[in-house]
Amino acid sequence: MALPPLPLEIVSKILLYIPLSYLKYFHERLPKGDSLKSIIQGEIYGKLVYVAGNHSDSLEEREDTEAHLVPKYSDVIDDHYVASIEELRALARRILKAHVVQMKIIIRTHRTLQTFLDFCNQYPEFISEIPSICVVGEAQSLRLLTNVIYWENITHLELIQGEEFTMILCPPHLEKFSIVFLDQPTQIMKGWPKTLKSIKIQDARCAKSILLPDSLQELICHDSMELWTTYPSSIRLLDLSHSISDVSCIHIPSQVRDLSLQFCDLKDEDLRQIRFPPQLKRLDLKYNSIRSLADVLFPSSLIMIDVQGCLINRLDDVCLPDGLQELYVGSNQLKSLDNVIFPQLKLLDISAKNKDHNIFNFSKARFPSSLESLLADGHKTKDWSKVTLPICLKRWTFSTVEDSRYLLFPSNLEVLFIEFPESSQSKFCDLKLPSTLQEISLHHGVSSDFHWNLPLLSTMSIKDCKGPIQFPSSLIELNIQGLCDQMFRNVQLPCGLRKLTSTYPFAKYPESLTDLEVHLPGNKYSEIPRGLRRVQHPPQFRPSLEQKFPGIPILDATSSDLNEYFNTAEIDWS
Q1: 46, 51, 311, 422: which has the fewest C-beta neighbours closer than 10 Å?
Q2: Is residue 87 part of a domain?
Q3: 272 φψ region: left (φ > 0), alpha (ψ -120 to 50), beta (else)
Q4: Is the same domain home to 9 and 156?
Q5: Nearest alpha carbon to residue 442 among 417, 467, 459
């Protein structure tokens, strides 16, 4: 007996959890007239991005039938679907049925805007019915839009070359404003609409010439000079990274909940001068010259402290707030966690990026029983097997010089990253892994043909291991990197795999694969499954792949991709 179809209301809710690129792919393969098409169209086109100057702008207008509506994959930017001019025309003519509630217009230069201006003149009602519009580009481009866009609907502005912006161009219902100056004098800006809640400023010579409205809730000011001495009491988020030179001149409003002072060259004495707001929740002090937190009086309200990339060498003299939930102290100069008293943290980041600053022993560390995430990779640790870890730990990243036979794991662990030394002979089959694991990453070590016994594992990453490998059948996403292509030749990939990233091509891919990245050519060209929606391959494969898979983006693997995986400074592509 066939099951009855799900009600469309339930289907609509299910679609909310499916990535836009998947929805687009599914939509293009539904038969014309299918009731699902209009529902999926609403999900895809409800939030749009239009990039003026895209290649599609130069294409001639196509026939007004659904079959000709650019049935090609499009990118997604900030959860917004990137639409072509043909798709905008189809939406305006109701060929595609969707109510657009948000639209972002990205203008590369004002010279690329003409196609969109013509569209706005042709379909003024369509543009006027979009309740929230964001414009990204030059102020000069903004002027060109004034005559074709319903100005009251512009709620977000993101401008470069801010010197050209004047308050005459300010929309009356603006909610978010972002501006980048090109090292030019800053003009006085005042008279903001009462709706403005967020301002972001970059590279202003005189930031205080931008008068802050009383309604402001978020202020981000980077790489700027001559800051304000007072701020509106309504501000909840304040980010002055790269901008502070003298903390004694800064008065932080008492209502601030999120404070960020990254890259401000703050020293210990500066930190002691700052009067933190009494209700502060999150404090970000990354990449400053802070050596000690010993005499810092943190507000008891703090739930997050981030001091990554500073010069801190000890924590046993620090008084942390009792309610603190997340502490990021990675990439400092810590040598030990002995005698450190942690509050009931949920997340602790003590990872190391500098090989000269390692914690070799953790056996005396007292991790809080509440800890759910422990990020400790980068240390050449010798005694993880002797460390008592919290039972509730769900995420653990670490490096070790111990043999895999002696490592123990919490029974509820879900995410695991282990880095062995490059010369390690530790065997993966000796790891006593909990069956609760959903994601695992293993760097170096020795693999063999064995059953992992990890029924919930969906994501795996393997880098530079030795020996044959058998992948768990439950995998959906796999990243496998190696400098030798032998390990890629006779390996069988899981039949349900959807996303694969690898150094070399495999001999055969499963038909379930939808996303493929291969960074170096192999000895033989592999057959590509027809269900792919995204391919990234070495440049020499591009012509044959484009011919075989029209409409699927064939991206070139570049040396920057390889640097990410291999940490190499240069790649020889000769």
Answers
A1: 422
A2: yes
A3: alpha
A4: yes
A5: 417
Residue 74 has pLDDT above 90, yes or no: no
Q: For residue range 269-312, what is the model confidence (pLDDT) as tens digits?
A: 999 999 999 999 999 999 999 999 999 999 999 999 999 999 99
Q: Which residues contact 30 (CB under 8 A, 6 or more apart)?
A: 36, 37, 40
Is residue 347 classed as helix, strand or coil in its secondary structure? strand
What are the tokens at 556? 């070139």
**Domain end (from 345, 370, 402):** 402
Residue-wise pLDDT tens digits, 330-353: 999 999 999 999 999 999 999 998
Q: Are 53 and 83 in contact (CB under 8 A)?
A: no
pTM of the model: 0.86
Angle between helices 35-45 and 8-15 (to 10 degrees): 30
What is the percent of the chain with per-residue pLDDT over 70, rounded to a whole number?
Answer: 86
Count of structural domains within the chain: 2
Domain assignment of residue 419, yes or no: no
Q: Which of 335, 369, 402 is the last residue in one of the domains?
A: 402
Host domain of residue 363: 281-402
Question: Quick one: which of 342, 303, 307 has its CA closest to 323?
Answer: 303
Of 180-184, 479-483, 523-527, least confident by mean pLDDT is 523-527
Going by pLDDT thresholds of 50, 70 and 90, the confidence category of residue 547 is low
Q: Is 316 helix (H, G, I), strand (E, B) or coil?
A: coil
C-alpha–C-alpha distance, residues 163 and 157, integer Å: 14
pLDDT band at 504 (very low <50, low <70, confident <90, very high): confident
Is residue 70, in this structure, part of any structural domain at all? yes
The dihedral built from the CA positions of residue 148, 153, 159 and 163, taken in this order, carries a sign that is positive
- Cβ-based neighbour number of residue 139 at 10 Å: 18
The DSSP bridge partners found for residue 77 are 80
Helix (H, G, I), strand (E, B) or coil at 311: coil
**Residue 385, domain CATH:** 3.80.10.10
The sign of the dihedral angle between the CA atoms of 201, 202, 204, 207 is positive
Find tokens 């529902």 and name the residue: 39
Structure tokens at 539: 């440049």
Task: Report yes or no on 516 lying in a domain.
Answer: no
Mean pLDDT (the chain) is 86
Do 276 and 250 meet the contact criterion of CB atoms below 8 Å apart?
no
User: Would the pLDDT of 71 be above 60?
Assistant: no
Residue 120 identity: C
Nearest to 394 by CA among 370, 425, 359, 421: 370
Largest CA distance in the chain: 76
Q: How far apart are CA 500 and CA 187, in angstroms?
A: 51
